[in-house]
């Protein structure tokens, strides 16, 4: 058994988009910016397995799906279907692949042709792939998705169906070719809750009864648990954590997964959930360079071993360094708060500190920051950057390896990379002391 | 007892369409007190948005309040003219957060220009004072004060939504009506926004009418809830009463249809069928065709909202079998008991 290749294997898949290639950029020979929508993603889908990819909007999950079905050309890596790399596919193999890998899209209201009857919609893929018994197959598949009796639906057009019925037709359309794999992109997010439950249940049955494998893409952790055995958490193009669904919900390891799980509302007024401590939104996935993608929002970013500093104070320095490097310190705005004392460097430095920092620093940390701010107001931002980097550079500014434990739990975070096993996200006080 | 901020009393709203009158809201009643968050839940088309729109005169031109009263601080406002609404209520007293922030900001004006325009119409404050006020609101919703002079396109979606909330808060209204304010957002951003709304409530004693199909947000963030089905209020009460002691079958089935990350293995409830086509007022229970416990009585006349005998004085439900439906439901689903137990244990762990 073990020598049988997995159904679908995604190896270091990359999909970058180029941005900014206007005429002026070309004339000036500017390097185009790269949007790193999918960045080094590896996943394995076994037969009869249902895995989920979850993440916020803009994390690249839909791009991943579109790349999988060949609607985007991959920038790097490979997709291996039953042992054969997609990059080496002949056109006959492509046709077979497209028959065996089917998609259910998010929006049932726009993904069906409004001019076709349900029967025509469902017959079309059969015609394309030259499959007979069309009438029989259409009836069967409608019964499977519980659109009963089929006669009632055959002649209808999408506008005569409710949202839930439309999504069932979308599922039927995906099933009618008897695929191995269904890729589902937020298939219930636009449905009412009473319908949502029914469609989720139907999809769960399909996996179990028909032996279809599924990649379920969603931003909603609470529905994922009904469909998928394994969850991959995606953040800004990368998979940060992979684990069995029940375990990831109970004990998330990556700080981002932690934040995501803890922000899911609990439908119970007796349950007292603490609101998220996260602020801001993910940054744009443009030219992200090296480093953990989550470090700018991470509540437990790792300071160098050599210094002693509180997490919150350290965060402020990291954020300030980032702004400094991007040349985004609002110098003029801060100076406008000072009344005319532009000649006094110390006052200017203090004004910037007051605007960007709320936490006190002591000893060497304080001295280095003071020095850096003075260098900055003296118009030597590169000196300021260098001073701060030398003392405060975090291991999180290098990309973490993905480490895997014996249960197959995979996480890409320096807290694990470095042998730190106890996460201390909930106790910032204790995190400070080491 | 202090006077309630908003009272909706037997409100009926009808739309005139080519195929006749449609009753979108039928005899809805609820109360919102100062500093109270009230959630209005239900499927799409149940009349929750129409209810909210009728409060601030936002109905489409073919819609009208045909009976019932809306009282704001004791004054009847259901017959207010546009002029009265503009001068007395909108922005200053009642502000509106629409579902889609992207479409509700003027792309050609900076946020501060839009705020100054609103402020000049509704208050006597100077431009400088208005700007200061907007800065204050920006910091409450977690936006940098310096960004009040940005154009909407300079913000991300989540930031635009917060800018809209800042504008809604700007004149310190007593009531905010929010129509699915976070539906388009991710959970972390949604949580950030509710964190700010919690803070606003604590600081300014603001009330909220929250319209959403997401009952989990209501159970977490609101004190009271009304669940609507096919233009009628099925059940209304404090969130604890409606959660612990639900009386209307739609209310507890709706609740059970929601996934809960604490119980990933629980079967989700499916509510079969559809609400009746909205038309003239109907003379039977609107849930009758979807209700497993319906009897002949439910087809012969429509149940009225009546008090539920429990600790919650405001708790009402419109069901003939409200005394027994939930007990029947629980006894038919033997697993529910043990799952409640698991939920309770998880609670203690937290």
* CATH first level of the largest domain in chain A: Alpha Beta
For the termini of chain A, the CA-CA separation is: 48 Å
Number of E strands of chain B: 12
Please write the string of helix (H) and strand (E) elements of chain B. EEEHEEHEHHHEHEHEEHHHEEHH
Q: Could you please say which CATH topology of the domain at 1-93 and 209-350 in chain B applies here?
A: Rossmann fold
β-strand percent of chain A reads 15-25%
Number of helical regions of chain A: 18
CATH superfamily of the largest domain in chain A: P-loop containing nucleotide triphosphate hydrolases
**Quaternary:** heterodimer
Count every helix of chain B, treating DSSP H or I runs of 4 or more residues as helices.
12
Query: How many beta-strand elements of chain A?
Result: 12
The H-level CATH homologous superfamily of the domain at 1-93 and 209-350 in chain B, spelled out, is P-loop containing nucleotide triphosphate hydrolases
GO cellular component, one term (chain B): plasma membrane
Keywords (chain B): ATP-binding, Cell membrane, Membrane, Nucleotide-binding, Transport
Subcellular location (chain B): Cell membrane
Membrane topology (chain B): Peripheral membrane protein
Brief synopsis:
With 434 residues, chain A is an alpha/beta fold. Chain A has 18 helices and twelve strands.
Keywords:
heterodimer, A: 434 residues, alpha/beta, Rossmann fold, 2 domains, eight-stranded mixed beta sheet, four-stranded antiparallel beta sheet, 18 helices, 12 strands, 16% strand, disordered C terminus, B: 350 residues, 12 helices, 35% helix, nucleotide-binding (chain B), cell membrane (chain B), AAA+_ATPase (chain B), ATP hydrolysis activity (chain B), Peptide/nickel transport system ATP-binding protein (chain B)
């Amino acid at each position: 058994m073990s020598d049988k290749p997995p159904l679908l294997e995604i190896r270091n898949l990359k999909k970058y988009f180029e941005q900014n290639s206007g005429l002026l950029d070309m004339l000036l020979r500017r390097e185009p910016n790269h949007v790193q929508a999918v960045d080094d993603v590896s996943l394995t889908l076994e037969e009869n397995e249902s895995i989920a990819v979850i993440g916020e909007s803009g994390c690249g999950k839909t791009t991943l799906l579109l790349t999988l079905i060949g609607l985007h050309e991959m920038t790097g890596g490979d997709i291996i279907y039953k042992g054969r790399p997609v990059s080496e596919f002949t056109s006959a193999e492509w046709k077979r692949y497209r028959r065996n890998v089917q998609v259910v899209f998010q929006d049932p209201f726009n993904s069906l042709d409004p001019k076709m009857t349900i029967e025509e919609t469902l017959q079309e893929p059969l015609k394309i792939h030259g499959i007979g018994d069309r009438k029989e197959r259409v009836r069967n598949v409608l019964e499977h998705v519980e659109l009963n009796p089929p006669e009632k639906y055959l002649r209808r057009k999408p506008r005569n169906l409710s949202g839930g019925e439309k999504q069932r037709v979308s599922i039927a359309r995906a099933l009618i070719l008897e695929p191995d794999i269904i890729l589902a992109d937020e298939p219930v997010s636009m449905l009412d809750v009473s319908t949502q439950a029914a469609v989720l249940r139907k999809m769960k049955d399909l996996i179990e009864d028909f032996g279809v494998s599924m990649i379920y893409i969603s931003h909603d952790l609470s529905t994922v648990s009904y469909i998928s055995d394994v969850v991959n958490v995606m953040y800004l193009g990368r998979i940060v954590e992979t684990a069995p669904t029940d375990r990831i919900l109970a004990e998330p390891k990556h700080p981002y997964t932690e934040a995501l799980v803890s922000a899911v509302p609990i439908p119970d007024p007796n349950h007292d959930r603490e609101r998220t401590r996260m602020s801001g939104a993910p940054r744009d996935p443009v030219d992200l360079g090296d480093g953990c993608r989550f470090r700018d929002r991470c509540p437990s970013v790792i300071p160098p071993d050599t210094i002693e500093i509180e997490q919150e104070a350290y965060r402020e320095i990291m954020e300030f360094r980032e702004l400094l490097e991007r040349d985004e310190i609002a110098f003029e705005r801060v100076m406008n708060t000072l009344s005319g004392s532009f000649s006094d460097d110390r006052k200017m430095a203090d004004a910037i500190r007051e605007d960007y920092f709320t936490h006190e620093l002591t000893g060497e940390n304080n001295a280095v920051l003071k020095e850096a701010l003075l260098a900055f107001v003296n118009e030597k931002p590169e000196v300021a950057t260098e001073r701060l980097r030398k003392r405060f550079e975090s291991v999180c500014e290098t990309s973490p390896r993905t480490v895997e434990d014996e249960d197959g739990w995979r996480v890409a975070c320096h807290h694990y990379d470095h042998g730190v096993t106890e996460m201390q996200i909930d106790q910032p006080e204790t995190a400070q002391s080491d | 007892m202090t006077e309630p901020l908003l009272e909706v009393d037997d409100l009926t709203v009808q739309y005139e369409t080519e195929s006749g009158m449609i009753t979108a809201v039928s005899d809805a009643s609820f109360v919102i007190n100062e500093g109270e968050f009230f959630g209005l839940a239900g499927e799409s088309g149940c009349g929750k948005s129409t209810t909210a729109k009728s409060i601030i005169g936002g109905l489409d031109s073919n819609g009208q309040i045909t009976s019932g009263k809306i009282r704001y601080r004791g004054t009847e406002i259901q017959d207010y003219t546009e002029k009265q609404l503009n001068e007395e209520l909108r922005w200053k007293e009642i502000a509106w957060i629409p579902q889609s922030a992207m479409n509700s900001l003027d792309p050609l004006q900076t946020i501060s220009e839009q705020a100054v325009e609103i402020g000049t119409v509704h208050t006597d404050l100077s431009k400088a004072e208005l700007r200061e006020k907007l800065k204050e609101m920006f910091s409450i919703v977690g936006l940098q004060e310096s960004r009040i002079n940005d154009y909407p396109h300079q913000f991300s979606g989540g930031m635009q939504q917060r800018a809209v909330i800042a504008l809604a808060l700007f004149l310190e209204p007593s009531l905010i009506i929010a129509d699915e304010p976070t539906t388009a957002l991710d959970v972390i951003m949604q949580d950030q926004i509710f964190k700010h709304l919690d803070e606003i409530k604590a600081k300014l004693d603001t009330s909220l009418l929250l319209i959403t199909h997401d009952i989990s947000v209501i159970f977490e963030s609101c004190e009271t809830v009304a669940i609507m089905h096919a233009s009628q209020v099925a059940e209304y009460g404090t969130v604890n009463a409606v959660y612990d002691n639900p009386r209307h079958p739609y209310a507890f089935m709706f609740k059970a249809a929601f996934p809960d990350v604490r119980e990933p293995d629980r079967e989700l409830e499916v509510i079969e069928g559809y609400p009746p086509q909205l038309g003239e007022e109907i003379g039977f229970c609107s849930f009758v065709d979807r209700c497993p416990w319906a009897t002949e009585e439910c087809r012969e006349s429509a149940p009225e909202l009546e008090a539920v005998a429990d600790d919650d004085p405001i708790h009402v439900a419109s069901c003939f079998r409200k005394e027994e439906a939930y007990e029947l439901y629980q006894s038919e689903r033997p697993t529910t008991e043990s799952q409640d137990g698991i939920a309770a244990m998880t609670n203690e762990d937290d």
